[in-house]
Amino acid sequence: MSYRIAPSILAADFARLGDEIKNVIAAGCDWIHFDVMDNHYVPNLTFGPMICSALKPHAKTAAGVAVPIDVHLMVQPVDALAGAFVEAGADLISFHPDAVSHVHRSIQAIQGQGCKVGLVFNPAQPLDVLDWVIEDLDLILVMSVNPGFGGQGFIDSALRKIEEVRRRITASGKDIRLEVDGGIKVDNIRRVADAGADTFVAGSAIFGKPDYRSVVSAMRAALTS
Ligand code: DX5
Ligand code: ZN
């Protein structure tokens, strides 16, 4: 299994975002998770496409290899803003199916602009929509907290949902990433991987510590032990 660790810059120092991204990439992370909140779909407000395009040149390793920007839209409406994030250099855009009127259309619109696409499921959101669109997806993101804030506790029912999503991915025969977001720490990441996740968002666990490398390494060690 090739695991990915995706630090959420929601927990970074906003006065030094470019450096924070460089540092977390130097620490060995795989993706940059970019949490977009609109004070409407969720009760918080973060950053938009202009910040994404400003950060894009920083999202690369010291050797110059691009590090994917994983945009998580917690906004309503979705379609126009998703297009702006494609323009801003997003590599993957995920949205919540309950935030749009026409899930299939929104998926097609993002893919039609040459970007990878994911669907995000809140803790109490059923997975039924996957019956009809799973073959179109690049990623499925299971929320293990309610969206809107970093630093919340992991909701255990997410483990059952991850198991169910893994079953559906396997049955689809498609190459789809299974990402989990919220409350991921060194001491629970292995449990989440055992349930079937392969991609892990971590905000406060990484940016809340002075030494990013030691956290990312401890997460990888937990995943491979
Ligand atoms: C919550 C965000 C998460 C958040 C995770 O709405 O989607 O990505 O940053 O933060 P931690 O890892 O602190 O729970
Ligand atoms: Zn997120």
Sum up the structure in keywords.
225 residues, alpha/beta, TIM Barrel, eight-stranded parallel β-sheet, 9 helices, 8 strands, binds D-xylitol-5-phosphate, binds zinc ion
Describe this structure in words.
- The chain is an alpha/beta fold and 225 residues long.
- It has a single domain, classed as Alpha-Beta Barrel (TIM Barrel), CATH 3.20.20.70.
- It contains 9 helices and 8 strands.
- It has helices spanning 17-26, 49-55, 79-87, 103-112, 130-133, 157-172, 189-195, 204-207, 212-224; strands spanning 4-7, 32-37, 69-74, 92-95, 116-121, 139-143, 177-181, 199-202.
- The protein has an 8-stranded parallel sheet.
- 43% of the residues are buried.
- The site of zinc ion has 6 residues, from strand 2.
Outline the secondary-structure elements.
Elements: E1 4-7, H1 17-26, E2 32-37, H2 49-55, E3 69-74, H3 79-87, E4 92-95, H4 103-112, E5 116-121, H5 130-133, E6 139-143, H6 157-172, E7 177-181, H7 189-195, E8 199-202, H8 204-207, H9 212-224
Parallel strand pairs: 1-8, 2-3, 3-4, 4-5, 5-6, 6-7, 7-8
Bound molecules: D-xylitol-5-phosphate and zinc ion.
D-xylitol-5-phosphate (DX5) binds next to β2, β8 and α8.
